[in-house]
Every structure is written in C-alpha cells, then in structure tokens.
Amino acid sequence: MKTLFYLIVITMVFFANFDDVFGQAKSIVGVYESVSESEWNVKVDLRADGTAIITWESWNAGQYDSRTIEETVATWERGPYDTIYLRYNGIIDTLQYNNRLSRKELGQQGAIPGIWQKGRYNPDSKIKNIKLWTDFHYPCAEMPPQVLMMPEELVEVAQKNGYKQVDDFYDIEKAIDPPFVYGYKPADKWKYDKYTSAVFWCEKSSYSESEHRSILKYYLLVASKPDSWSPMKIDDIIEWEWGSFPGGLSLYEDTLATLDGFYYIDSNSPGPKDVLLRDKIISCGDGGLSIDFYEYNGRWLMRMWD
C-alpha cells in the first residue's frame, strides 16, 4: 500500500509541475507594460478567458493628464514554449514570454517576467518590437553570470570600443548561425590563420534627442590583427538598419558573381555592375531573408535576397 501511495503522490507532483518540466511557465495571465521616456506608453492585458486589451497612450510633453487613450480588443492563445499568439484587426503578433526578461534596457539590474515580439512583425502591429514587463513590484531575480555568446577576445575588443555582446542572441527564434565568424579577410599566404580577422554582432544603447529615450541598436563589427598573438582591432562598424534583429553570420565566396544588385550603404546608390566579387561575402540570414555585405574600395555595399 505504501508503494501505491508514493506512486500516486509522485504522479500528482509531476502533473502539478507539468508546465515546468516542458519549459512552460505556470501562468502568463496579467498586465504587461512598456517603459518609455517618450510621450507614449503601451500595455497588454492578457486575461484568463482568452481575451486581451491593448492600450496605447500618447500625450504632449508635460500634459500626461490629458493624454489620448486608444484601446484595441484582441484574443490570445498560448503555444508551446511560452509562445503567445495575439490576434486583432487581422494581425497576428507572435510574442515570447520570459519569466526572467532582463531589465538592462532600463538601466536596471536583474530580471522580471515580460514579453516581446519574436522575429519580424506586421508594420501595423500595436506591439512592434517593444519589450513589455509585468508589475515592477514583482520580486526581481538576480541575473546569472554572463554567458559568452562569442570568443572572449571578441567580447573584449567590443567592450573596449563601447559595445557589448548581444546577450539574448540565441533567445530570438530566427538566429540560426552564430553572431560571429572568423576568417573574413585573407591572411598572409605563408602564415595562413583564419583567426586573424572576424566579423561579429554587438549592441549599444544611446540616447535619442528626438525620441527623448535610450535606444538599443545593433552593429556589425569588423576586426582584424596582424598575427595570432596580437590583440584584435576594429576596422569597420556597420549599423544594423534592416529589421528588428540581425540574423546569424556566415561567409561564402562567389567569384563568378558581380556587384550587380548591391547598393552602397552610405548612399543607397547601386554598385558597379561589372566588378567581380574577388573577396569573401559576409552573409546575415535567418533561414528566410538574407542580407549580404561586401567591401569594395573601402566602402561597404549590401544586397537583400530570399
């Protein structure tokens, strides 16, 4: 009888913690809110009956009491691995719940439950790529020690230049390849070492005077060193401007192709169509849309393709 009793107890405990076993939070019902230093705010109220209210507030500087409030009725359902499908006005926002969403963008330590948009989103989305957190009185979980997303030498050269690794790179569904790749530049043919050059994604927050808030941006850093024992130095920096989040990096060669279809990043003008691609191409992809970067005569070009 004791054995049967223990089996019943174990079974009850297992199903009581079923969600935890399979990576699901017990409940994600609640109000999630953005934190903005601008004259706007967005809230998402996920209710237990499967309905949701999206609230947009906007106001002129110093006139919060007379703010404009726009409410949108939505429905939501919970998918595997704490994915949230929010439906309204013919739009489906695919959100990700995280019970330890970092508060670093707010200039604060620790993490509390929150949601954010996964991958690309509809231009008419009410959520866009804004991160939303629960009640800030929620007990703050201490952040775990930093996990390196790329080799330490790349993390160090980024930090020395005011950038940092993308800590949540692999939390984004579309990140397939790693956020770095070695061997972009050709090395000395007598001392070949692909680890003397690298390209890698980093992030940096800066204050926007026009929006009156800090904005997190992503940058592609191109670095190299003369030999394997010297420190890396930054050669070029490309600001990410083609979506909410960059994809993983890889290199490839296509010596029969030309710059036809490439555009200069600094002027958006087309590149020379008859120039062959003699060097390696940096590819940034997410399994769907891909973006190629190529350097020619000291200027960077890009092209997009499916």
Structure explained in plain terms:
With 306 residues, the chain is mainly beta. The protein has two domains: 17-133, Lipocalin, CATH 2.40.128; 152-305, no CATH class. The protein contains three helices and 18 strands. It has helices at residues 2-16, 18-21, 152-160; strands spanning 30-33, 40-46, 51-58, 68-78, 83-88, 91-102, 111-117, 132-133, 164-165, 180-182, 197-208, 213-224, 233-239, 248-252, 263-264, 281-285, 290-296, 299-305. The strands form three sheets. Strands 1-2-3-4-5-6-7-8 form an eight-stranded antiparallel β-sheet, with no helix packed on it. A hairpin with an 8-residue loop joins strand 6 and strand 7 (111-117). It is elongated, with a radius of gyration of 23 Å. The termini are far apart. Mean pLDDT is 82; it is low at 8-23.
Spatial arrangement of strands, main beta sheet = 1-2-3-4-5-6-7-8
How much is the average pLDDT? 82
Seen as an oligomer or otherwise, the chain set is single chain
Bin the strand percentage. 35-45%
Total separate domains: 2
Q: Low-confidence spans: pLDDT under 50, at least 5 residues?
A: 8-23
Largest sheet: 8 strands, antiparallel
Overall body shape: elongated
Q: Helical proportion?
A: under 10%
Listing every helix as H and every strand as E from the N terminus to the C terminus, the arrangement reads HHEEEEEEEEHEEEEEEEEEE
Q: Compute the number of strand runs.
A: 18
The whole-angstrom Rg is 23 Å
Q: In DSSP terms, counting alpha (H) and pi (I) runs of 4 or more, how many helices?
A: 3
- Give the terminus-to-terminus CA distance: 63 Å
- Strand-pairing-aware structural class: mainly beta
